[in-house]
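Bumping my old thread because nobody answered last time. Still need a sequence for this structure:
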């Protein structure tokens, strides 16, 4: 295989990985869904060998489960796992947010304000009943990532991103828009960021995540 051919195969594999991972995170591939190789390779335009590599990579990240002699399936969801992810998200995000606030500068403030503007606009659409769930949750994620984007640690950012995506999957599977409460909490987090008030921000974030988990457990429709 030539270098160009090898690069083409790797590009197809990376694109396939991103598409499958995104479909899992956004709940298009539901928890415990069987990932039959023939069907999946046709849907994503990759070879069986490339698909096995992708699914093995996703298994390592915790989005897919490999079962001996039974192939692959999308990782199931559970109350215990949701609670663990929520605790881990709070631990990482609170620490990263404190560091990010301490490193506050004009560029970071601009990113946070811009991310909140997109989120708040989408939340208003959700309130009116014409917003799209996926767009709302995407901007939700971008806002929280902007809050910690000045923490100064690539390792911390990567660890948070992986945990956030796993938690995000539960949001797409289990959560629904809860009205004005999360929007008010996001606005309060913005104010904390601009004031560099990490202590209050941690308290608001804890309430924000805890209420989301309680909402998911109360609905029970995802189990």
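Sorry it took so long. Here it is:
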């Amino acid at each position: 295989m030539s270098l160009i051919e090898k690069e083409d195969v790797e590009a197809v594999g990376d694109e396939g990985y991103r598409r499958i991972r995104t479909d899992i995170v956004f709940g298009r591939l539901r928890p415990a869904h069987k990932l039959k190789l023939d069907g999946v390779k046709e849907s994503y335009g990759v070879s069986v060998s490339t698909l096995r590599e992708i699914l093995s990579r996703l298994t390592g990240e915790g989005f897919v489960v490999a079962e001996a002699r039974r192939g692959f399936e999308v990782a199931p969801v559970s109350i215990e796992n949701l609670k663990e992810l929520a605790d881990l998200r709070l631990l990482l995000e609170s620490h990263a947010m404190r560091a990010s606030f301490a490193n506050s500068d004009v560029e970071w403030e601009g990113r946070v304000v811009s991310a909140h503007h997109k989120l708040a606009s989408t939340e208003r659409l959700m309130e009116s009943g014409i917003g799209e769930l996926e767009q709302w949750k995407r901007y939700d994620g971008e806002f929280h990532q902007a809050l910690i984007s000045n923490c100064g640690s690539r390792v911390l950012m990567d660890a948070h991103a992986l945990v956030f995506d796993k938690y995000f999957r539960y949001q797409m599977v289990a959560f629904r828009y809860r009205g004005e409460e999360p929007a008010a909490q996001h606005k309060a987090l913005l104010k904390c960021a601009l004031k560099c008030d990490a202590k209050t921000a941690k308290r608001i974030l804890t309430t924000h995540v805890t209420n989301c988990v309680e909402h998911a457990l109360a609905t029970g429709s995802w189990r």
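The beta strands are 34-35, 64-67, 71-74. Let me know if any region looks off to you.
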